[in-house]
Amino acid sequence: MHWLFEPGFFSSQPVHTAFVIGTVAAIASGVVGVFTVLRGQSFAGHALTDVSTAGGSASFLLGISPLLGFVGFGLVGAGTIDAIGTQRVKGRDLATGIVLGAATGVAALLLYYDTIDSATTGATQTILFGSIFEIDPSTIPIVIAFCVIAIGIIAFLYRPLLLASTSNELAAARGIPVRLISLGFMAALAVAVGLSSLAIGAILSTTLLIGPAATALRLTNRTGLALITAAAIGVLVTWLGVLLAYDSYYWGSSQIAYPVSFFIVILTILAYLASGLPVLRNLTTRREQRRVL
Amino acid sequence: MTNAWIAATIIAVIAGVVGFFVVLRGSAFPAHALPNSAFAGAAGANLLGINALIGLAAFAGAAAVSIATLGRRGRHDVATALALVLGLALGALFVSRSQEYENQLYSLLFGEVLGVSTTELLPVALLALASIAAIMFLFRPLLYSTVIPDIAEARGVSSHRIELAFLLVLAAATALTVPVVGALLIFSLMIGPPAAARSFTSRVALAIPLSVIIALITVWAAIAISYQTNWPIGFFVGTISALAYALGRGWAAWRVWDDRRAASFKG
Fold first, then answer.
1. Were both Cys, which of A216, A227, B132, B152 would link to B145 (CB 3.0–4.6 Å)?
2. Backbone phi, then psi, for B76, in 5-degree steps?
3. What is the pLDDT of residue A235?
4. B250: part of which helix (H) or strand (E)?
5. What is the ipTM of this complex?
6. pTM higher than 0.90, yes or no?
7. pLDDT band at B125 (very low <50, low <70, confident <90, very high)
8. Domains of chain A, with CATH numbers?
9. 3-state secondary structure of A16
10. Is CATH 3.40.30.10 the right assignment for the domain spanning B2-266?
């Protein structure tokens, strides 16, 4: 098995933590991601990672718990986007853009201080790209708790949220409080994105939120199935990515591991592209044709 | 210092003009994704030891084409998100392979407008002229296709082609601005000032110059305050842009309120 699992893979503590955190983040992102893609709010999902990043850099600087910074800023950002955005897609896009622009400005200032402060060297890299191998195992319970909160909100809102996501007008006509539902969804999004940007970095947060969900929605029309498929794809690419990144340390002679984010992103995009292939799309119809023949 | 003023002025003009269409078309997400992909190109060029502008243009262009083609079949925002994370992941890969890590990363993302050299100004100015010329050339079909896409399509203006052309202009504008103001801040400049201008006036002929003026005020003020306080320029660009938008929204709200009051007096 040495060609597949390089020495020490199963006994390494950072790898264990990376697996647990990566799995939890992938499940939360997959579930929230299906609704993000259905609602066409990928941009808000991505913007919240940058807003959370600003919160993360603030917590580095103030010495408070990063989780508080990530999730706190995320919730404020989500509320602002929802408050200034209209229900029209273009207006929502603009609201997201304004919040994102302001947040990156704040992040620029905070990261600048993180960079010149020698005690927090590496903050820019850690906050932006995340280091799944350098997570403190003691954060695992908190990450799991936030994952449960995010999935809990989605489960609580499930039916009205689904209707509001597919047809906002129909939902409003049936007396569903669509503004409230939208705000509730944004809160779930902020929690999921905050926890995953803390755990695995801003890049992977967007990747796991959008990639597996979009892939799942291309494979099936049933929402329940899409939720499970998205979480499964997310977990799978995360595990493979961690494995490849660990092994990559032994590739060539440079002895520098490739970033985990690189592998997970590549695997996610390959999965998305593969789901668009006619072969996979016509899988069910083909099987039926064969039966007829 | 003079170079910084010239570079910032060129960039503000571009951001004001191109950004107007970004806001009108609701293309804020691609406008955010392209600079981030360009960042990967700069990091890659740095690693290979070639001119950064080649890497920037190649990556921004590739991202524009993939967003336009992937977005045709699937969901547009999904295609943009995937192009964005691919760019960022490649950037992370390139930066991890090179020696100088932290400071280089910071300056590529947040810019170094005060360190612009005279030799860097010429390509920036040329690309700027090219982008403005492209917008002028595309102006009418672009406006039609943005405001009334169905009628534009019926009159033979392909919205897919316009989308691709617009994204390529956006990519060119991005490639030249990333080394100067950084990947994250060109975005604020392309959204805040044009959005503010749109809330002040709905007339295109007025809104575009106004958007350029607000963008110019934003960068000039940002440079001046940043020079005084020694705080990063990006912070001021980001907050002043957002402030301009808040003012614009306040003005629009006041106008509506004023109209209603006038109407109630008459009634």
1. B152
2. -65, -45
3. 93
4. helix B233-266
5. 0.82
6. no
7. confident
8. 13-292 (1.10.3470.10)
9. helix
10. no
